[in-house]
Amino acid sequence: MALGILEIIYVVLGISAVAFQYLLYKEKDVANINVYIINVALGLILAYMAFTALPANFTARRTLAIALGVLAIIALLIKDRTKDNSLISKTLLTIAIVGNMIQLIV
User: Fold this and answer.
1) Are 84 and 95 in contact, with CB atoms under 8 Å apart?
2) Number of domains in the chain
3) Which residues are CB-neighbours of 96 under 8 A, at least 6 positions away?
4) DSSP SS3 for 58
């Protein structure tokens, strides 16, 4: 029963990650700061879940999960500080979200 609920959570997280990434890269000016902050929050939630799902002796993968969470925060800071590097910050945020999703699935 508990594994079924966990699978539902993974599916919902995967669908929401794809949907929010689509909204982030949409051509029109829909990718405003609200969509960006939701993506950063999703990246941090995924980093927390990936970190807490691993046992204590998997320090390399746990460190990677935290590094990807920090990468999401760095992407937000780049977006906030400069308007020219918007594509770089979106790419960093995508790396953080996709990396944590892969880490949760594997």
Assistant:
1) no
2) 1
3) 43, 46, 47, 68, 69, 71, 72, 75
4) coil
